Structure formats: structure tokens, C-alpha cells
UniProtKB/TrEMBL annotation, chains A, B:
One function term, GO molecular function aspect: histidinol-phosphate transaminase activity
CDD domains linked: AAT_like
Organism this protein belongs to: Selenomonas montiformis
Highest taxon of the lineage: Bacteria
Designated gene of the protein: hisC
Residues where N6-(pyridoxal phosphate)lysine is found: K207
Protein name: Histidinol-phosphate aminotransferase
Length: 352, 352
């Protein structure tokens, strides 16, 4: 059929497996804790009759709450269907030039997919052998810059000085700092948005706020950037956020204590897990996220991945050069991580 | 700032007003009835703890229910965040060629906005003076075709014979039939999807199913088209539908009796309203939707729009040539329409 010549053919992003059985699921960086009890309250008392109406197109109730939470103006906030929706919209909006955009060679693999679907030229800038991003490598002609800080799947964070250097040295580019994991460590670039018009910071409620199933992400930046982003958003879908997601997002922000407590638990378990993995001979960049990107010299990561899966422990394995030496292990509950460590001990004794 | 040269500048779609006060709201084609009581049940018993997990990326629970409902295979179904999200994804996927796509000059104004944001060349094909779409006008070189049936904002439906003629005469183009309003009348093109690989039909739960606030739309077509659409969707956002929206969509489909009853009520009220408007001297295309596109010779539609607004009755007015002679009036409850007619009577006696 010749209508296929008009079709945009792409190689999509592959999300992690979502097994239907009950397993120890450490493969998609979800929270092991439930969202705030306030989320359940909001859903269970939701006025279902109101669903006959369109939701607020400007998502006012949520942008207002986010602005108050982050001490910015409401027109410095943009919300979307998870930070993937926000980032996708950013690629479409800010990377519409001719010059290639820049992002690290090892990072969130969706960047390359968005560049492909929107036909954006790009250059992947190599990290160092230690998975470090060198700001000076971004001192070159470009049509935009995007990087994750802390980075994924490495878990490594860059200093705010380094982040600021990139933003400052590229005044002619929009610089997007993807802070999906910043709640678990690292320094946020948020204090810089008042000083740099070209900076946009993206966040998600999917990780530390345990709302992956609700799809809530957002961006913070200069009013100018947010206005351009909204123009494109309103050219794609006037109503991206459904009414329950707006209410749930607000409820989560209202429960700061719960957010801090569960995040602290994940961080404590992460630090414990680091010690145990070291003892078992694993190496890994020092993670500031809710996952650890671990490798063990002389041990096949792929085989370990398969063996763990047989024991109903799912971690993430990437079948590509360099990454295929590693497992990306999400931090679960303390008990789940103890089980993981026990199973690893047994496996490493017996099979490797 | 020179980073602006890389920014995609667009003129976005303008959705209808969403007044916060209690008014008679006949301006955005929402349902005057609540969604099925099963929707409230599902929300109020939703397992909020499960929100820590990502939702099903393939939206299986909902595509399965839709496939059963429409008697097609599951891989002939695509779901999205309202039919706007579905249509936007269709424009991005199927209209990636060099030749201009075709759509009517008077139709859903978002088509032109999507064409602009995705840089798709287009030709607007004039309707007849009677707002009729002539299939033979689409017998010309093109990179794709999209039209609404019944059409908006005219409310007019085209026969299935006409629809089939367009699909058959354009085997080298993907033809999208936007059936947002088909639940209220008109003939669906669904029976044709098994025979034409190039046909895609889009639907929404926002209107007859009273779920505008939940953002659920879908497309039905050949497996080949659905596969291409999914490839692009998974290149934009792996998880577009949040977990509650999947559950709510299924719940709505399970309550066929409620759906039929409320739709029948809207249709009955529409027919009553047509009679009343005729008596008041209005002309309008014979609507098969949940709105009436009405004009009254010698009466300023704009002034009527403003006067009704002052009386807390919101209808939709489009400030553009031809359309500015009309008001698009959504069908509310019988009581709301009786109030509207009464106010119109008073206004027309006094001020015009």
C-alpha cells in the first residue's frame, strides 16, 4: 500500500517489564511505598459527576500548588502526563532549529527516541570512563542541550557548579535539566531559574511521590519558556491532565511529612544496599537516586539478570554496549533488598 | 535572546470558556448528565496504593474492553488522552509525507492547529453553501484526509456511501473519520474498517459517555495502522493513560443501558429544541450531534451570545467569517433548554 510512504516510521522506546504476577519488582524505579494517604482520600471522595465537564485546561489548581511549593510564580510552572510528556513537549517546542542538540551518550534513552520522532538532529556527547559529564564538552555549537541530573541509568549526580557552567556558556540554547531523581539526592538547578532565561528544569511525581500510575510531571523555568511550552501544548491537546490527576497531585504536595519520611527510608535502604553490594564484589557509580547501577567484574550481568528473574526478582538489564556489563537495581523496601542480597550471595557462590 | 530561533512558534487552539460560577453551560458540548454510576464506584474503590506502579503501557484492560464492545480484534484498537490526543498522534504518524493533506474548510478547528504544529502542508476543501461535504472534492492528489462525521461545528452528517467513496477513491492515503459525535446520530464508518486498510475511525468518551474530565479517546482501524500509531505513541510517552482512566473507561463500557438512556434523552431534547428554535426564526443544518449550529437572519449572533452570557447562559461563538453568523448551542437537560428558549424569546422581543 502506498499510503505507507506518508507514515512516520520510528523505533520506539522500550519501557521495563510490568509482570502481572507478584514479584520483587526492582526494574522500573518505582517507589516501594504507597503514595500519601491523602491521595486515597482524594480519589475515594472524588465527585464523579463532575467528570462530565472538561478539566481545567490550564491545570490551575495544580500549577498554583506547585508554584507555592517551589516558591516560584504560577506562570513559571508547566504540568504534563508524567515527565515523559513534559520532556516530549519540550523537545517539540525548544529543539526546532537546524543545529544538532547535545545530550550524553549514556543517559535516559528516551532522549534519542524523541529526537528521532521529531526529526531533531543530535550529537551524543561521551561521558568519561567514570560516567562523568564534563561541562566543557558542551562548549560547542548546538541547537539545545538536555541532560539528567542525577543521571540515569548511572545514578551519578553532577555539581550545581557544573550545571551552571553549561547554562552560562550556552546562552543561545535552551538547556533542559531533567531532575526526575533529584528528590533522592544531588543538587537541584531550581535556584538558577530566576537568573537564567534559557534554563528549564523538569520533575516527576512518579518516583519519590509514588504516583507513577497517575502520570504527573512538571517543568519549572522562565515565564518566557513556559509560555512557549504552553503554546505548543495547546496546539497538541488542550486537556492533557484529567481531573483526578490534578486533585491527586495537589494532595501529594500537601503531605510533605509523608514525602520526606518515605524518601528518607529509600535513601537509608540505598546506602545499606551499597555497602552490601560492595561486600559482594560489585562496583557502581555512587548513586544519588532510587537505583544502583552495579557491575561485578568477571560476572555476566545478563546471566545474573536471568537468574534473579527465575527467582522472581526483576531488575533492569540493557542489552547494549557498555551498559550490558551492569544491572540497574531499583531500591525497594529494606526487606526486599535484604532478600535480593541473600539471593545474590547464594547465586554468586553457586553459579559464578 | 537568540535561543528563540530554535523555538517552535505556533498559534494554539482556543478551547471554550470554563466559567467557575454556576451557569447554564452550553458552550463545550459536554453531557448534561453525570457519567454512569459505575464510574463513581470504580473511583471510590480504587486501590490508591497501586498508583506507585506504572500503569499498563499497552492499556490492555481498556483496549480489550473496547475490542469486545466494538467486535474487533484488540490490536485494532488504540487509546489516548481524549480523542484530541488520539488525533494529534494520528497527524504525527500518518501525515508525514510531502503532499498536502485535505480537510473541510469548516470543521473542527484543531485540524489546522495540528497541521501547523507538525509542519504538515494542508488544503482546506470548501463545503457547499449548505455545509455539505462533497466526496468528489477529495478526488485529488493528497498526503492524507481527515474529516469529522457528523461534522463540527455544523452538526451535519454525511451518508456512509459518501464516506466510503472517499476512502475507496483514496487508497494511497490514510483517511481519518473523526466520529466524536456519532453516538448522537449519523452512520458510523466502523463496518468499513475490515475492508479498507487505509481507514481509521476516532471516537471519544467525552461527549455521550460524560467523561470529558477523564480524558479518554480511541481509534479503531486496520492492524497495520494501529501498529504504526503505537510505534509513534511509544516514541512520545510510554504511559499516556493513567491507571484510574483505564478503569473508568472499562466501567463506562459495562453500563450500556445507562449510556443508551442518557443519549436518548439528549437526542429527544435536541429534537424539541430544533422545533423551538425554528419557531423563533432560527435556521440551522439538521444536527445529528449534541449541539445545534443556529443562525437567525437579521440578528447579530455576537450580540445574542453576549446577552445570553449576561443571563448566565454560555453558548459558543466563533469570531471568524461565515461562522460568526451562528451560535453553537450544546444540548443541555430539557429544563436547561427550556430556560434557554424562554430567555431567547424575551431577548428577541426586547432587544433585536
Amino acid at each position: 500500500m502506498s499510503f505507507e510512504k506518508n507514515i512516520r516510521t520510528v523505533v520506539p522506546y522500550t519501557p521495563g517489564e510490568q509482570p502481572q504476577r507478584r514479584v520483587i519488582k526492582l526494574n522500573t524505579n518505582e517507589s516501594p511505598y504507597a503514595p500519601s494517604p491523602k491521595v486515597a482520600e482524594v480519589l475515594h471522595s472524588f465527585d464523579a459527576d463532575s467528570l462530565r465537564r472538561y478539566p481545567q485546561p490550564d491545570c490551575h489548581v495544580l500549577t498554583e500548588a506547585l508554584a507555592a511549593y517551589h516558591h516560584v510564580e504560577e506562570d513559571q510552572v508547566f504540568v504534563g502526563v508524567g515527565s515523559d510528556d513534559v520532556l516530549s513537549m519540550c523537545f517539540l517546542t525548544f529543539f526546532a532549529g537546524e543545529k544538532p542538540i547535545l545530550f550524553p551518550d549514556i543517559t535516559y534513552s528516551f532522549y534519542e527516541v524523541w529526537a528521532a520522532v521529531y526529526r531533531i538532529p543530535f550529537i551524543k556527547v561521551p561521558l568519561t570512563d567514570q560516567f562523568e559529564l564534563r561541562p566543557e564538552d558542551y562548549r560547542r555549537e548546538n541547537g539545545g542541550i538536555v541532560f539528567a541530573n542525577p543521571n540515569a541509568p548511572t545514578g551519578k549526580a553532577m555539581s550545581l557548579t557544573g550545571v551552571e557552567q553549561i547554562i552560562k556558556e550556552n546562552p543561545d540554547s535552551v538547556v533542559i535539566v531533567d531532575e526526575a531523581y533529584v528528590d533522592f539526592g544531588g543538587e537541584s538547578a531550581l535556584p538558577l531559574i530566576s537568573r537564567y532565561d534559557n534554563l528549564l528544569v523538569t520533575r516527576t511525581m512518579s518516583k519519590a511521590r509514588a504516583l507513577a500510575g497517575m502520570r504527573i510531571g512538571y517543568a519549572l523555568g522562565s515565564k518566557k519558556l513556559i509560555r512557549y511550552l504552553n503554546d505548543v501544548k495547546f496546539s497538541v491537546n488542550s486537556y492533557t491532565m484529567n481531573a483526578p490527576s490534578l486533585a491527586v497531585g495537589v494532595a501529594s504536595l500537601e503531605d510533605e511529612r509523608y514525602f520526606r519520611e518515605t524518601t528518607a527510608k529509600t535513601i537509608a535502604t540505598r546506602e545499606w544496599t551499597k555497602e552490601q553490594l560492595k561486600k559482594l564484589g560489585f562496583f557502581f557509580p555512587d548513586s544519588q537516586t532510587n537505583f544502583i547501577f552495579a557491575s561485578r567484574p568477571g560476572t555476566s550481568a545478563e546471566r545474573l539478570f536471568e537468574q534473579l528473574k527465575q527467582r522472581d526478582i526483576y531488575v533492569r538489564y540493557f542489552r547494549q554496549p557498555v551498559l550490558d556489563q551492569y544491572l540497574r537495581i531499583t531500591i525497594g523496601t529494606q526487606q526486599e533488598m535484604e532478600t535480593l542480597i541473600r539471593e545474590l550471595e547464594t547465586l554468586l557462590k553457586k553459579n559464578f
